Amino acid sequence: MQSNNQPTNRPAAEPTADTSAPITNHQSPITNSPTDLLRFSTAGSVDDGKSTLIGRLLYDSKAIFEDQMEAVELASRNRGDEYVDLALLTDGLRSEREQGITIDVAYRYFATPKRKFIIADTPGHIQYTRNMVTGASTAELAIILIDARKGVLTQSKRHGFLAALLQIPHLVVAVNKMDLVDYDRKVYQRIVDEYKAFAAKLDINDMVFIPLSALKGDNVVDKSLNMPWYDGTTLLHHLETVNVGTSRNIIDFRFPVQTVVRPNQNFRGFAGQVVSGRIGPGEDIVVLPSGISSRVRSVVTFDGELEEAGVGDSVILTLEDEVDISRGDMIVRKRNLPEKSSQIDATLCWMNEEPMDPNGAYWLIHTTRNVRAFVSELNYKIDVDTMHREQAHTLELNEIGRVQLTTTHPLFFDPYQVNRSTGSFILVDPATNNTVAAGMIRSASRNVGDLVNEAEAEAKRRQSTNVTWEQTGITRSMREELNGHKAAVLWFTGLSGSGKSTIAKALERRLFGLGCRTFFLDGDNLRHGLNGDLGFAPEDRKENIRRAAEVAKLAFAHGNLVLASFISPYQSERDFARTLLPEGRFFEVYVKCDLEVLKRRDPKGLYAKALAGEIKEFTGISAPYEEPAQPDILIESDIQSVDEIVESILARLLRLNVLSSI
Hints:
This protein is α/β, with parallel strands linked by helices. It is built from 16 helices and 25 strands. It has 4 domains: 37-241, Rossmann fold (3-Layer(aba) Sandwich), CATH 3.40.50.300; 254-333, Translation factors (Elongation Factor Tu (Ef-tu), domain 3); 339-444, Translation factors (Elongation Factor Tu (Ef-tu), domain 3), CATH 2.40.30; 481-655, P-loop containing nucleotide triphosphate hydrolases (Rossmann fold, 3-Layer(aba) Sandwich).
């Protein structure tokens, strides 16, 4: 037997600068260097020895203060234990100490000469699945403990599934309590074979099995003399040497802006953390969602400027140009863009005791961007014990399912398997401000609205057969010459109440006064007649705009200045309308207005009804609106008067030679 089977009452080693007291996830004295820091989590069934294992690692690596050890010894005596229970080093809650189990996620820090570690000790009970997801979400390695006496349990499989779901790159299956099965190799091998058969169904690239005894110390820090048949690594050696940083995306530069720093008129920078990739001065970037391009002037920190910033660095970027940027925007490389969509296909872990409301609205927090989100569809929930898919109408506490989400503003993301930082999000209940779910983005939705490449698809849509387009005897150019102006379509888009129709009608009056031929199209008017058979589901909205665009095309062909006022929430729909007209004759006019202003205006009381749940699929509240990234004409109705807007549009039409004079 080894001489260090049980801890003695000797004082703990004098702490150094690197072996400070354990820390929580809210404060950490160490950096996020990908080579000298390993974040790992532990999980297992009840009484599998997770806390004891971590206590052993802390004790044998001399990361325990003397007063901490004395408190553990006293607590062990008070409980009547015949040995010093190292599990008490991590079971910090009183309820945990009383029950001898882990309930909350306990974060601990320790270091060896080779590496620093942050441990997330997560509970293994089925009712605490959400805690495991929380603790393992930032881990690069997961340790799953299996009691050698009990073998592979349902919980063991559950934890492997969650580790694979969270894309944790390294998995250690620690077969614990080998001392209680007389260090029997056959027992160990039987567990290894069974778990390997199960793991073959999962996406796990690196999996290591280690037989150990956390209580006795076998194969935790030192090689066990009791298992000469095992020729593999010890747990600590594996933790010290495993390849760290493989889950970090160092290719795709993503910089979510946290705040704008402007201490004086001579400095304007954008603060945030590089969540993936690298950046340096002189590199071309683009700001999302505006799409404005610029170049990095400098990378600034408290200690001075850097030649390059990498993953995990919190820095301030200054740009060569004056660009309007605010919190929630994202700075990326010009030729390496993330995906963009308001329709998200995601895996969701429900973390609230109140079930998911399929018709409810939530705040979706993605990097530094907050948007309102709605569950468009619950595809299925996953039985994490059997990995079978089951039909469901909602998600209960700790349940995991695949959902389609709709956001009121587009997200800029990468799939979770490519980038864990830009591929993850949380949902927050707007009423209670509680975090209710954690999500992993799979991709943009492909089955809600068919928003991908719709403009191209619509251009190739099926047409009626056995019909021929009838040309009129009077061409558009002839009508334009008679009218004294060119034909064009001004497509006014914006949220309800932003002033689209008001501005379009005021503009039409001015054009009429100038002797111009006009044709006014309004969304509400079309729904009273031509589109009266359509609702507000995504497919109906799509058909509504398709019909409106075709009518605008007919009016354009007759030489009119067409003023079309439609919310038209999806960029693909507006792009389709553009494809129906010649180059330079379609103008996307974005009537921009702050949502909070619209709620206060609410001339028809629609926002109040939508917020109360009385109106379903209301754009901006319970349905998405994709802001034009580069509209032909941008007007801000909350800071400009109608007359000012009309005059600016007329001046623009004059410069574009649509009008000959005003």
